[in-house]
Amino acid sequence: MTDFYRGRRLRRSAPLREMVRETALQASDLIMPYFAVDTDDASFRREIPSMPGQYQMSLKQLEESVARAVDCGLRSVILFGVPKSKDPIASEAYAPDGIIQRAVRLLKKRWPDLQVITDVCLCEYTSHGHCGILREDDEIGEVQNDPTLELLAKTALSHVEAGADMVAPSDMMDGRVLAIRRRLDGAGFVSTPIMSYAVKYASAYYGPFRDAAESAPHHGDRRTYQMDPGNAREALREAMADIDEGADIIMVKPAGPYQDVIRMVSDAVDVPVAAYQVSGEYSLIKAAAANGWVNEEALVMESLLGIRRAGAKLIITYFTEDLLRRGLK
Ligand code: PBG
Ligand code: ZN
């Protein structure tokens, strides 16, 4: 018996550290988000000011970005759409020729093996910017839960009909997973998984995304449907409810600031857990790195390892392309 513990023995060399490393990141864990804009200008590619390195893109530009990323080993994408027009009932969300429906067809035709996931929500498509519909002729009222379910189910089905491999409802209406599952099953898509944004907080970290997706609510906020940041145990109720309704993968969002919640949820459920490192988490790292205050490459890896270590198998992150370009396998 020696007198004290020598933890440094297993840290002596890089190969040894690698041998005993419990958690690592793999290319197959990562999902890259893209913003597709419905525009006639095929050359449209606009950098999002609050998200340096991320772009709003025409379908043509999206295809070129994905082509470069696939060459580096990209396996999976999640798509967000910016439609040409918005209305109170989010018609473009479920239009057979909507921006997402066309984007899915394009990507799946060229890359049948690419996992194409779609975000299912109405906020990018409603004139008022809320994730559900309001009472008729009421542009300032409360979001109506049950009437929204029908539109979400319709949207999800239209994505799957276009060829989406998986749908990811992010609206936080109660009962949407069940509504979507029933609609997909009824149309014969029994094998298409649902990744539910089950545990989604009303977060200030979504700010930059709302610039990217042009989806900020025009009045009020999302606190009547997204979760209160003070609550952790409520995450279990949300996760269990969605699993009961048929969710195949459960997501926690944001990721870094909610690692305790990722841990609680992943200990409690037996389905895969995903986490979304959201726009604000991305922008904070980018801003500090641009100032030379942190080492971006190292910080990105450390931030994602923390999320992985907390129990997330899958991570949606805007750093996916960068990591693949740097050779992550
Ligand atoms: C749409 C949606 C949002 C995000 C993903 N899907 C924004 C929101 O709820 O306001 C946020 C993603 C990010 O910040 O990167 N409901
Ligand atoms: Zn939304």
Report on the structure:
This protein has 329 residues and is α/β, with parallel strands linked by helices. Helices cover 37% and strands 16% of the residues. Strands 1, 2, 3, 4, 5, 6, 7, 8, 9 and 10 form a ten-stranded mixed beta sheet that branches. Strand 5 (115-120), helix 4 and strand 6 form a beta-alpha-beta unit. The mean pLDDT is 97. It has helices at 14-20, 59-71, 99-110, 145-162, 176-186, 207-213, 234-245, 259-268, 279-290, 296-309, 320-325, and strands spanning 30-37, 45-47, 55-57, 76-82, 115-120, 166-169, 195-200, 249-253, 273-277, 314-317. Helix 2 (59-71) runs parallel beside helix 3, helix 3 (99-110) runs parallel beside helix 4 and helix 4 (145-162) packs across helix 5. The protein is globular, with a radius of gyration of 20 Å. Ligand PBG binds next to helix 6.
Write the layout of secondary structure elements.
Layout: H1 14-20, E1 30-37, E2 45-47, E3 55-57, H2 59-71, E4 76-82, H3 99-110, E5 115-120, H4 145-162, E6 166-169, H5 176-186, E7 195-200, H6 207-213, H7 234-245, E8 249-253, H8 259-268, E9 273-277, H9 279-290, H10 296-309, E10 314-317, H11 320-325
Parallel strand pairs: 1-3, 1-4, 1-10, 4-5, 5-6, 7-8, 8-9, 9-10
Antiparallel strand pairs: 2-3
Helix pairs in contact: 2-3, 3-4, 4-5
Element pattern in H and E: HEEEHEHEHEHEHHEHEHHEH
Small molecules (ligands, ions, cofactors) in the structure: ligand PBG, zinc ion
**What structural class do you assign from the helix and strand content?**
alpha/beta
- How far from one another are the termini? 41 Å
Characterize the biggest β-sheet: 10 strands, mixed
Which stretches of 5+ consecutive residues score pLDDT under 50? none
Helix content estimate:
25-40%
Number of strands: 10
Our estimate of the beta-strand percent is 15-25%
Oligomer: single chain
| CA-atom Rg in angstroms | 20 Å
Instruction: Give the integer mean of the pLDDT values.
Output: 97
Number of helices: 11
Shape: globular
